[in-house]
Design goal:
The complex is a heterodimer of chains A (about 425) and B (about 575). Chain A has about 425 residues and is α+β, with helices and mostly antiparallel strands. Helices cover about 35% and strands about 20% of the residues of chain A. Chain A has three domains: about 25-160, Adenine-n6-DNA-methyltransferase TaqI, Chain A, domain 2 (Alpha-Beta Complex), CATH 3.90.220; about 165-205 and about 360-415; about 210-360, DNA methylase specificity domains (Adenine-n6-DNA-methyltransferase TaqI, Chain A, domain 2). The relative contact order of chain A is 0.13. The chains are: A alpha+beta (about 425), B alpha/beta (about 575). Chain B: GO terms for molecular function: DNA binding; N-methyltransferase activity; site-specific DNA-methyltransferase (adenine-specific) activity.
């Protein structure tokens, strides 16, 4: 239980809100001196991460490559402030606890104060300060705002007494460690539930002796969608129609039918590329080749494109059973294993028609499909709740940090 | 795309193989314009031919034909589309003759270099079928109004621009952005504009294909089917354009509307103002962003050297890499002078002119000139993803040299970034549009002139600041202050720093006149408590201006209270436990 303080007053800074009466603010420039110390190519490589602050670069996967010429990198020491000017508003700021070199594009400051380094790190990386950086950042391109040092140096640094700074740091280290442990457990739960779901599907589709194995071409019709040709001139009888493409087949097995791209289709094409209840749509290529989506209802006036392969079940194949069978193939990496001799796997109509699936009679198919629908719905709901729990835990973590560094929580009693 | 637009563009099918897609416009656009002129001239063709046969003197012929037809252009050639199609074998020569027969002010086909296209089409056996196809297109004014014709051009040009992958911000401004700017531009003058027979001038120094001029006319005069504010008004359209092809398109369109052909001029506006000495009631522009002005540099600097404060660039010059702020000043100086009734201007810019440049840099001095002369009336932030080939933030600036009393000395900032609707299919980078309803909301904010979530009003001084130089004493090896011969402390260059002091700090409402007292108050409150030995070198103080638009509209979302989050978490835990039991069944 967190205890509120009664002695809060307006800080005078909109994004800081109310803070304890005895706390001071100083401009950043009075606590840190900007320094650019280059030509240390042999030093350890560091980076500023949004999630973690200043870390050793080899500790984390990073798609950003190290510059060939490390001489332009800047040396920093423990206690130094490092900011990525273009991402400060997204949280790429931190007090380093390490000695090493960082990108020449960062701005680096040596400490000229006697405050607690850990406290300043929590403070400068809090949501309140991210808002502060965002207010002061500017840019011409969207999402590419940059904070100028003239503004950054004026950031008001909120300073409780040093012993209270240490208490806040200790409190936050302890509390965030607990939250992070809890989040890790929840993530483990989700991974286990997903494994359980896959296992459930696989077991339900394990063929009994009475089952038959048939190729898809004997159970269903398949159609590859229309070639995309936006640049082609429109023929007289064509009209624009929305179409489903690979990106509209969602990970949860549903098909998005709104906000679709459009292209010209003739009337015969609209018939050929129709979508109706019970169709199973398969992604035709790429990393998610073969992932299925299921059409819950007819979709008149909507067609599909050649990144989508449509499987329309015949009389001997129950649509939902077809969906689960195709999902099981996808989840077992069937396509990558079976066709993976080339770099980009395509699920052509020909390949799709030749795939064999095991199936019982129609009534048992319905039974199995119904069972899987019910069981997976429960797992999916639990996963969604757990994801929401993680989301709220992260929100709590951020709010807790901001509350602590702005003095909303009285850590003197909580310590 | 409209049915008509689809049909016209489908003629490009005939060009496949002979032309690359980005070249289709070289044929489709001039042919469309030729067909339009053909249709417009059809009712008066025989009459014109008779006058031409009877009158060999060119000047008199022009006058007589103009009086007889009411049109500003004509063709004396015996050819038209019907006759051209009737003589397939002589088509190439006859088409060339047809084009050559137009009056002198129809110079657009030269600018399209259309002779070359005719030769290519003929050689590749495409000419006849293209001409036949265009002969089937009905572009008579009775079927296709001027506004509809403008929309058709816009569609074709957009197709052309998409294939050409033009430079960001160049080439083409979408109609919805133009309509908003036109509405804002005329918004302050609604009363005067509805007077019977009112005459106004409108000017675009970066006319492109004339889209802005067309929308202005549409707004004020309109058409019989869609009347504007004042169908009896007369709006004279003026423009200058540097690009041959865009010029050709713009001029053709203006001619089709019955405007004076000489009011569209070819040339680089920055280097040479073809309308020097002329001012206008309304000015509009969407200049290129982030494009250098090296090619115009000598001419611009010569003008400044020659005319100084009376040049078109009285505020100064921006960095060579971006010419937007030259156009901004150009527009400001082309507004009708106050003593003649005053003028207004609208210009679309990216974010740079709001804040680039330190105190006393070119851009800052230009902002200073605009604000100190009270020429900036409003700045409206547009939704992003508005333009065909750029995804950047854009702003409409409205300038006014004769503001209504309540707007004097102030600037209104309007955050219009949320007033948009999604369009059904993306057009390049354009995935949003400003509908008539969205536009109305923004114009209402402008006219209401209130402080709201989306509209804020500032005195011009609110954007000014002083950059002061803060000095610290130089210390010798003993830690003692080093002093000059007069006993004053010497500054340490390594510790020298600058601070920006807003004009409005501590409630100063005297602008630059409050300099000494305000800077003193700032230093005492914000600097000396941290470095008591510091002082300000007053000789180095500079005045700067910036408009930190985003800052004034940033929506700070504070974290939810911890108790509230905890309650949600506890609820979720209970639900998760129930669901776990369900899953295990």
């Amino acid at each position: 239980m967190t205890r509120s303080r009664p002695d809060l007053v307006d800080s005078g800074v909109p994004w800081l809100g109310r803070v304890p009466a005895g706390w001071k603010t100083k401009p950043l420039w009075s606590l840190f001196e900007r320094i650019k110390d280059v030509d240390h190519p042999e030093e350890r490589m560091l980076s500023v991460f949004r999630e973690f602050g200043v870390v050793a670069k080899d500790s984390y996967d990073n798609i950003n490559k190290t510059a060939e010429n490390r001489s332009i990198y800047q040396l920093v020491h423990p206690g130094w402030l490092v900011a990525n000017r273009m991402k400060a508003w997204q949280g790429s700021v931190g007090i380093s606890s390490l000695r090493g070199i960082v990108s020449g594009h960062y701005i680096c400051f040596a400490p000229r104060h006697n405050e607690d380094h850990r406290y300043l790190n929590w403070l400068l990386r809090s949501t309140a300060y991210s808002n502060g950086y965002a207010v002061l950042s500017r840019g011409v391109r969207i999402g590419q705002a940059e904070i100028d040092n003239d503004e950054f140096r004026l950031m008001p640094i909120l300073l409780p007494p040093v012993e209270e700074q240490r208490a806040i740091s200790d409190y936050l280290d302890r509390e965030t460690d607990q939250i992070d442990t809890l989040i890790a457990k929840q993530e483990q739960l989700i991974a286990t539930l997903r494994e359980r779901r896959r296992s459930l599907v696989r077991r339900a589709l394990t063929p009994a002796d009475s089952w038959t194995t048939s190729r898809i071409k004997h159970l269903a019709t398949t159609t590859l969608g229309k070639m995309l040709d936006a640049g082609r001139a429109v023929r007289d009888d064509d009209s624009l129609a929305p179409y489903v493409r690979a990106a509209d087949i969602l990970a949860d097995g549903s098909v998005r039918l709104t906000d679709l791209n459009e292209m010209p289709f003739s009337a015969p094409e609209m018939s050929k590329f129709s979508l109706q209840r019970g169709d199973v749509l398969l992604i035709e290529g790429g990393a998610t080749v073969g992932r299925p989506g299921f059409l819950e209802a007819d979709a008149p006036g909507i067609a599909f494109q050649k990144t989508v392969n449509r499987l329309r079940p015949g009389a001997d194949l129950v649509p939902r059973f077809a969906y689960w069978s195709m999902l099981a193939l996808y989840e077992s990496d069937f396509y990558v294993r079976f066709y993976g001799s080339v770099s980009f796997v395509h699920l052509t109509g020909e390949k799709l028609r030749e795939i064999s699936i095991a199936h019982p009679d129609v009534s048992e198919q319905s039974e199995i499909a119904g069972y899987l629908d019910e069981k997976t719905a429960k797992i999916d709901e639990l996963i969604a709740k757990t994801e929401r729990f993680i989301e709220l835990s992260k929100e709590r973590r951020s709010a807790l940090i901001t509350a602590a560094v702005t003095g909303q929580i009285d850590v003197r009693a909580a310590a | 795309m409209s049915t008509l637009g689809n049909f016209v563009w489908s003629i490009a099918d005939q060009l496949r193989g002979v032309y690359k897609p980005h070249q289709y416009g070289d044929v489709i656009l001039p042919m469309t314009i030729l067909r339009r002129l053909d249709c417009v001239l059809e009712p008066t063709r025989d009459q014109v031919r008779q006058i031409a046969e009877a009158e060999s003197r060119e000047e008199l012929r022009d006058v007589k034909i103009k009086r007889a037809t009411g049109l500003g252009f004509y063709s004396t050639s015996p050819w038209d589309f019907t006759r051209l199609v009737g003589d397939p074998d002589g088509l190439s020569a006859n088409l060339t003759d047809y084009i050559a027969g137009f009056s002198k002010n129809i110079d657009v086909f030269e600018r399209f270099r259309f002779d070359n296209q005719i030769a290519t089409l003929s050689e590749k056996n495409r000419l006849l079928i293209v001409v036949q196809k265009f002969a089937e297109v009905d572009l008579h004014p009775s079927s296709v109004s001027n506004a509809e014709m403008g929309d058709l051009f816009e569609e074709l040009i957009r197709k052309f621009a998409e294939a050409s992958n033009e430079t960001a911000g160049e080439h083409f401004t979408p109609r919805d952005a133009i309509r908003l700017m036109v509405d804002l531009l005329f918004a302050g003058d609604d009363q005067a504009l509805v007077e019977k027979g009112v005459v106004r001038t409108v000017y675009d120094p970066t006319a492109g294909t004339g889209g802005m001029l067309s929308v202005a006319e549409e707004h004020l005069v309109g058409t019989p089917e869609h009347p504007g504010l004042n169908p009896d008004a007369r709006l004279r359209l003026y423009g200058q354009e540097i690009n041959d092809q865009s010029y050709a398109i713009c001029k053709s369109d203006m001619i089709a509307k019955g405007q004076d052909a000489s009011n569209i001029q070819l040339g680089d506006t920055l280097a040479e103002d073809k309308f020097a000495g002329t001012t206008f009631d309304y000015c509009l522009s969407n200049p290129p962003y982030g494009v250098d002005w090296k090619a115009s540099e000598k001419a611009v600097k010569d003008e400044v050297a020659r005319a100084g404060e009376r040049s078109r660039f009285p505020g100064g010059l921006p960095s060579i890499g971006d010419g937007q702020m030259l156009f901004l000043q150009h527009l400001a100086t082309k507004m009708r002078p106050v003593h003649d009734g005053g003028g207004r201007a609208g210009i679309v810019l990216n974010g740079s002119p709001l804040f680039t440049g330190a105190a006393e840099s070119g851009p800052s001095q230009i902002r200073r000139w605009l604000l100190e002369n009270d020429l900036a009336d409003a700045i409206v932030a547009l939704p992003t993803n508005m333009f065909y080939n750029t995804g950047i933030a854009t702003y409409v600036w409205i300038l006014d040299n004769a503001k209504p009393a309540e707007r004097i000395g102030k600037v209104q900032l309007i955050d219009g970034t949320e007033f948009y609707s999604k369009i059904r299919k993306n057009l390049g980078n354009k995935s949003r549009e400003i509908t008539a309803a969205d536009r109305e909301q923004i114009v209402k904010l402008y006219a209401a002139y209130d402080e709201t979530e989306h509209s804020k009003i500032f005195p011009t001084d609110a954007f000014g600041y002083w950059t002061i130089t803060v000095e610290r004493p130089l210390l010798d090896e003993h830690g003692e202050v080093v002093r000059d011969r007069k006993g004053n402390p010497k500054p340490d260059p390594k510790l020298r720093d600058t601070e920006n002091v807003p004009f409005t700090y501590a409630g100063n409402d005297l602008g630059d006149d409050g300099r000494d007292a305000t800077i003193k108050a700032y230093v005492e409150a914000e600097v000396l408590p941290h470095i008591p030995d510091a002082w300000v070198d007053e000789k180095k103080t500079k005045v700067g201006y910036e408009i930190p638009f985003t800052r004034h509209f940033y929506k700070y979302l504070p974290p939810r209270p911890l108790d509230e989050i905890d309650a949600d978490l506890n609820q979720l835990v209970a639900e998760i436990l129930d669901l776990l039991r369900e899953v295990e069944k």
